[in-house]
Structure formats: C-alpha cells, structure tokens
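Obj.: predict assembly geometry.
Materials: sequence records (below).
Method: joint structure prediction, all chains together.
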Amino acid sequence: MKRVIFLLALLLGACSTAPQRTLPPVVDGTQPRTTQPEAADSVERPDRVEAPVPTPAPSGGAVVALLDRADAYHQSGDISNEAATVERALRIDPNNGRLWNRLAVIRLDQGQPRQAEQLALKSNALSRGDTRLQAQNWRLVAKARWSMNDSAGARAAEQKIREPH
Amino acid sequence: MARKKRTTRRRSSKKRRKSKRRHSRFPWTKILLSLLVVLLAYVVFLDIRVHRQFEGKRWSLPARVYARPLELYAGLHLTSEQFASELRALGYRSVRVARKAGEVSRNGKRFQLISRPFVFWDGQESSQSVRVTFSSTHLKSLQDDRNGGALALARLDPLEIGSIHTARQEDRILLRLGDIPDILVEALIAVEDRNFYTHHGVSPPAIARALWVNLSSGRVVQGGSTLTQQLVKNFFLSNQRSLWRKFNEAIMSLLLEWRYDKDEILEAYLNEIYLAQDGQRAIHGFGLGSRFFFQRPPQELSTAQIALLVGMVKGPSYYDPRRHPDRARERRNLVLRIMHEQGIIDRAQYQKSRTEKLGLVKPAAGTSKTFPAFLDMVRRQLRRDYDESDLVTEGLRIFTTLDPQLQWALQKSLDQQIRPVLKKQPQLQGAGLVTHSANGEVLALAGGREAGFAGFNRALDARRHVGSLIKPAVYLTALERSARYNLASLIDDGPLEYEQSGQLWNPNNYDRKFHGQVMLYQALADSYNVATARLGLDLGVNAVIKTLRRLSVDQPLNPYPSLFLGATDLSLLDVTHLYLNFASGGFQVPLRSIREVLDADSVPLQRYQLSVERVIDPAPAYLINRALQMVVVEGTARSLNRRFAAALGLAGKTGTTNDLRDSWFAGYDGEKLAVIWMGRDDNQPMGLSGASGAMQVWAGLFASAGAVKQQLAKPDSVEWYRVDRPSAGLADKGCKDTVQLPFIESQAKPAAAPCAQGRPLRWLPEWLQ
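Observations (raw structure tokens):
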C-alpha cells in the first residue's frame, strides 16, 4: 500500500515538477492575464507573466517500473543497485524532483551526507510548488548537515522545514 | 626401444672397461643419466612454458568497452531511422518474422524484434520479444510481443565500441564452450582433427598420412597437426617450419593433453586461434572473429557463416573473405561438403548453405577504430583507477556513457560543415563534446574532423582562446550582486579606454560600432565587448576569476581585463565544465565517461556514481540561463530560430577570436550540452565566426539528434516582468516594445517605464544618463 502511494505521488510528481517551467512567450506575444492598468501605481504592480499549464511526462511508466525495481533492491539490502537503478531512472526523467530526492536518501544510507545534502538541494530546485517534497528535502538536508557537524547549517535547514512555501 | 639401446651400450662399455682398465673408463652411465636429466629438465621446461601460456592465455583478456545500452520506452526521443541504425550497428538480422534473439523485422515505423540477453551491472537482462512503434519523432509504443501487453521498459544489449589490449595487440572475446554452437565445434573437428577425442595430443596416423601425401607430391600440402598442436603453435606464433619446432610442439601437445582435459583444450583453441588481421589488431578466436566478420555472436551465425570461419583456420590471410571472396567461398563450400558427409548437416541444409552469400559486415563497423577520441578519454579515466596490466589482461567489462546516435550525428555534422570548405581551408579542423546536462555523462566526443582517426585529441588536449564564451562568467558575477545588477541594468557600450601599468586597452565591438546604453542581458546576447569590459572592470578581474574557479575552470587564467573578453586559453573540456554549471541549473556535475566496471565474470567492481554540487544559487542561475536563452531569442545565435522552434528554449553562446582564428559555440537544450570548436591547429585565421562555423555544426547535430524542450526551474524568489525596451523600465500594457525578463522579487527592480506611467518619452534621455 505504501508503495502504491509512493508511486502515485511519483506520477503526480512527474506531472507537477517537470512541465511548469515552459518559457514564457517571448517579445510581446499573447498578453497573458493582465490586470487593468492603473497608470499611477503600475510601478508597484507591473505585469507579471503567468506560469504555463503543466503537461504529463510521457516516460512515467518506465520511471515507475525502474522505481519498482529500486524498491526490490532496497528490500534485499542491495543499496548499490538501488542507487544504480535510480540513476537509470534519472537519465530518463532528469527533471523529476522525486527521483533526486530518492537518490539523496540513498546517499545518506550510503554514508555520503555531503552528496545527500547536495542532491536534496537539487531536488528542491525542481520541486517548485510541491511543499511536502520540499519539506522532506530540507529535513534530509538538516539530517545530513547534523551528521557533518554543521549545526548552524542544520538549524538553517530546519528553519526552512517550518517556513511556508 | 630406448631401453634396449641403453643396455647394448652398457654392455659394450663393460667390454671397454675391461680391456682398457681403469684409465680410460668411459662414463656412459653418467652421460646417459645426465642426458636423461637434461631431457627431463627440458620437458619440465617445456611443460612450464606451455602451462604458463595456457593458463595465461585463459586469462589474458583485453578490457571490453561498451557504449550505453539503448533503453526503449514510450516517449523516448528516437526516430525509426535512428532505431534502425542502432540495430544495424548491433548486428540484428533483418528477417520477415523475428524468431530468434538478434533478429528484427521492420515494417515502416513498426518493428518486431527479439533482444539479446545481456549481463549488466544490475544483473541479467533477459531476451525479450517486443513490438516497437514510432511516431515521426518519438517511440510511440512498446509492447510485449507474446501477449500484446504494454511494456514499460526494455534494454537492448550495448554496442561494443572497442577493447583495450596488450602491446602485442591481440584481441579476443572470451567464449565458454557452452556459448559456442555445437555445429561449429563438430565442423571444426571434422575438418581439422577427426581423432581429436581419441588421440593424446599427437596423431601418428595423421602424421603418417600427411607424410605420405607430402612425399608423394614432393611438397608440403597437408599438415598432420592435431587441434592441440595447432593450439600450441598459436601460443608461440612462430611460422618457421623446422623439425626442432615440430618436436617441441609435439612434446608440448602431449604435455597439454596430460594436464588438461579435452574440453579445456578445445575451449582454449576456440578462443586462441588466429583468424584475421585488422590493421594493427590481431583477431583471435571465434568470438571476436564472428563479430569482426558478421557483427554478431557465434550463437547467431548461420551454417554457412560457421563453415566460412571454420574454413579460414587453415589460412586466415589466404582465405580472407574480404580480400579473396571467391577463394573463401570455395573453401566454405568444401567445409560444408565435409559437414554433410560427416552427417553434421542434412542434404537440404547443405544445398541451401552452399548458395548463401558470404554476408560480411563492412570492416569499420564494430571495430576499435570507430570512436577513437572517445575511447581515448575512457582510457585516461581508467588509467587513473587501474593498472595498465589489469586493463589488458583481466577481461574487464567497461560500460561507458557513449551514445552512438549522438556520436554519429556529431561526426556527420562536423563533416558536413568542414568538407565543403576544405578546398579553401585545407587545414580547417573541428572538435566537439556532448554531455548530459543533469548527470555529466559524456554522450559524444569528436577529437578532429575525421571520425575514425586516432590522432591529436582536440577536444581534450587543444587549448585555445575562448573569446566571448567566457562572458557568462562576467555576467553571472554581476547578477550574483543582485542589489546592484539585474538583467535590465543599463551598461554603457560607449568608447572605452583603460590604462593598466602604462598600457592602453581600448576594446572594440565585433561590428566596430558602439551601442550606447544597453540592458545587461542585451550586452550578453549581442556579445558587446565594450559593455562587457566596462562591466568587468566594475566587478574587478579577481571577482571574475573567483567565479570561474567556483565554476570548476582550473586552468591558469590571465589576470588582466582582457580576460573578460576571453583572452585566455581553455580546452573544449574546460568550456564544457563551465557551461554544465549553467545547463544543470547552477549545479556542478563532474564529467563521466564510464558508468561501471565489471570483471570478466560480470562481478561488479566499480561504479562511477552521479554526484552534484550547487555552485550557483537558484535565482542567479535562473537569470543567467534566461540571458543565455536570449542569445538565441534575439542575440548572436538568433539564426538558430530558422531551424528550431522558439518554444524549445535553447540557450547558448557564440565565441569568436581575433581575426577569425577560433569559432566556438556552447549551447544546450533541456537534456544535453554541446560545445563545438572550429579552427586550425597552427592558430591561423580560417574565416569563420562562432555563428558561421561552430554554431552551424551545433545546429546540424541538434537537428538530427532532436532537440529537447528546455524548461528552466523557476525558483520561488524569481518573478517575470515586462520591460520597456527603449527605457529599460518596467512596462505595462501601455508600452509597445517590451521584453519579458525575470527578476529577483526581493531585490531592486527597474523603475516604471515612461510608457507605463503615461508620461512623455522625454523622460528617456534622463533614464539614459
């Protein structure tokens, strides 16, 4: 059951992380949702450009299949192959923040807190809008920093867990 | 018989002893004994020698190097043509209906194939029967052929791209006896040594027969060598036909048979026998022979192909099917006849196989020559981690990151740009390096204009002025001071004179014009030298050097303001490191050309794991990426818009050095970064700018490989605004000529544009002060 939830979350992740980064239209294309201009205070509230609508990642099935396999490796304690399999999934879907988070968790298991921290930061860079994943990542960052005796850094990360996103 | 001789001798010596008394007693016993000892010692010596060879050869295996395996899944960026070329390279046979591993049937954009089993790092990938359908740009669907159900993923066997062998340049693919088709073994025994399973290493009847035939014809036409003798002969690779050598061979054959069983000897023979020469490389054994001539493993050979290989044992160069096809065919058909006579194949098979074509692959495909520049990089990485002797003898299996599709596309594009100019510029050279932005894997590498030429590796070893390619480091340094600079900050591109230690520096623009006040992004997009120099001077050389060091450029950098314009030598590799920081969204990713190393028994030895390190904060990383996209949108790389859709969000930077000596382009899409260089080895002008040379190679590469949409990950701290171009102020609907730019929300942004406030344009001059 836990795994089903994880897979669902992953699929949602694939939908929500990858595509929200399409370029805004360039040089005066269609005007997206403009507020009525008020000449006087348009300085304070100028036109913002809206983010485009997400589209689902087409390779989701392959990534889910690989994560199934990674889970199996995890259960059998084969951490090296678990890592290799998640890296394999990342080649297919490099913008999936959940995959980077998974790899960060693995690196912490492998006794590589520095990499765990960095991979969690990478995951966060790709997880805009996914506050739960971001909180997970900050928790991971904090844990990794504690284990590197970076207490100031760890506290800063813990602060981020509590921050609203 | 020997004993008899000895006793007679002993008797006669007794007589002599008696007659001549003590004085002249000849020491026969001693001599004989010493002779025996010498002979025994010699036999022991031969035994050690042949034993060492046998054991050594069993394990003296070059490292095998593989490209990345192709992963098939719905949504993969791959055309049916690219897929077909990959299958061709892998030696998949085109058939009407695929029934065996390594067969494929194609109907337009639909393929039905049976993949080969293969042992990877994470275990065995078993053979799969799949149906693959393509759209014009993508793999549309992947199905299990047996039940029609959708398959999530299938992994093909990887293309073998080379081997790392000994100084003797012997190359082989080790086969276990079980991997070799029975019919090959039976044919070999039938043709070369029918008594193999009964003799003890030498076959007196065979020698007698050979002797008789040779004597009666007056020359050597038949050899009486057993397989064991041939194996021994191959061990020592001497072609002289002396009696002494024959004697040694016979003794060693007896010794081998005494020490090892028939199957061990047969296995060694099948792996050892010399079959062909590929330039410097000697092709040993049926495993490599099968690949060399047919580009497939022995299990997949047809009867006729097996007969051809077996026939070649007798004279690899005389029966070389590429040089002497008629001779080879005749020999093959003779082998087929023997196979039929011996009951190995039936009449129908015999008749069918006799008429079959030789079916050879072109010699270039699948040989070590194909990707020498990339292999060079792999070797360098391996030599850091392994002893040379382990590499050439331990049979390591090296799984690299090379993407053959991209490699072919890169080589083709380089060739297409350089070939037409060669008449005017015979010394024009080019190089390129393609990497996966997110994980740093090297996907393709060209070290020169000639694809298969193993020479000076320009991608790794040539260091040249980089020109404007360095500018993003200057602009990033500025954008990281977000209190002072944003993408719309105005920079003066008016005439500049700067004096340093008595020397006057007055940089000029490529178009020899000055452009007045320009927005920061625009100065980068249009690659304005003067504005960049001014910005750099404001930041300081040391600040820019510090940025470059952080972005993993570790070459010596010249600490003068001319550094801002790229007057410093970097290699293509250095430039790739630099731009990977941008392409990966601010993370430094170490380059890797190897994923995994397994030992000869496929036991995992080492993984080169993915690692990242954040070197640019998310917000400035986003801004510099947008600026590099603007280079394509409206800057020096805007001609790319003719070939690529704007929505792809391509980013990049052109670089041109003084008098058109170097033409550079570094550019990336949502998946990969490619850096291209063109120029001459003697550093003379060659008439191409970054946009007219290297960028065209880049465009050709991405057009044929397929560009992937780039979706920059926008940090929460960044928002987009419209900016009025004439005034560089924040715009609204009232402004006509605008550009959309991202800003860090918490930092200072430009003031409102005159058009946004409804004020007259006379404000403009004041803005520009």
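Conclusions so far: Confidence is low (pLDDT under 50) at residues 1-18, 364-369, 759-769 of chain B.
To do: check interface contacts against the pulldown list.
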